[in-house]
Amino acid sequence: MRIAFFTETFLPNIDGIVTRICRTLDQLRDLGHEAIIFAPEYSNRENVSEYRGFPVIRLKSIPFKPWYPELRLGMPSARIYTALKEFEPDLVHGVNPFVIGMWGAFVVRQLDVPMVASYHTDLHQYAERLRVPFLIAPGRIHLRSLHNTAQLNLTTSRPMLQVSAEMGIKRLRVWPKAVDTESFHPHNRDAAMRYFLSEGEPEKPLVICVGRLSHEKRVSWLLDVAKQIPGIRIAIVGGGPAEEELKAMFAGTPTFFTGYLRGRELAQAYASADIFAFPSDTETLGFVAMESMASGVPVVGARAGGIPDVIESGVNGLLFDAKDREQFLTQIRGLIENPTERERLATRARLDMEDCSWRKATERLIGYYQTAIRAHRRWNPSEWVA
Predict the structure, then answer these.
(1) Which of 73, 117, 180, 238 could make an SS bond with 94 (beta carbons 3.0 to 4.6 A apart)?
(2) pTM value?
(3) Looking at residue 241, what DSSP letter applies?
(4) Which domains are seen in the chain, by residue range?
């Protein structure tokens, strides 16, 4: 099968969407499929032109300023039509389509190619966090119209399927969750990494948080943990637009900002911690939670978005009410004080993640692609477009 991906974010960015795309491309290559990726061009950063032998077509883009400069808005380009026509895809997959996905959908209609779209971002939550609530209503209309031009729409979790349905998006299925259980494993626990993350105090309980440092992730909620739980260390892994503000906020607390970690170092960081703190309430799934669980480290996460699709509270981790900062603090304190409970949750978390392989998720995705191709043969836009 020949699949063209249109994505609003790609390498060198690192986030849950990029992780899902890259791991899917890994599996597609191993299974003998062909792919091409259309992604934004990033200024002053290395823009890879291929991934696993698949070409990456970079599109001129502008930052979404002043609200979210890391998000790039792709510009229309004749390259889309030319490259797509030359590639001759069996199917186009719009990943979190918004601007680049919109140009892709337009060309798809010209070339009469089936399309799958996947919804990865809770628009309402992000707009509120970025203080742009005026974008919610037009954003919903745009996304609904764009998604409903696709033969099939995917969401990253069962809770997000309900959110998408309430937006008026049709023909919905869940793209199964997956995690790399070989790379993320308890055997990656490393004394030197723990020494690094704790800034030379490895004997103290270590809480880790991994992700993009932006306001909607609510990393600031960890400030209460740093100030009110004595004798702990906190390691915050990642980078982003709120990084400098957060560093100033946490100054004088036992908190270490590591910057981005990748590959084996990231796997060691997860496994070398005692607890993963996940305050964000805007996740449609939460790959970092799954990576921590696969690493044998229990997660304290918000009962919001797709997180309850990953964490069963009291069984393989803990969930706190999304607006309750005190409960978040209390649950972390409880796990620090009860290593036996920590170990019980960690063991079950690892077992649960072993059932979530990328190969299984990609095989299911290919099945969805085949469904969309079959639907395209009997496609009637007057019946489907909302």
Answers:
(1) 117
(2) 0.82
(3) T
(4) 2-178+357-384 (3.40.50.2000), 186-353 (3.40.50.2000)
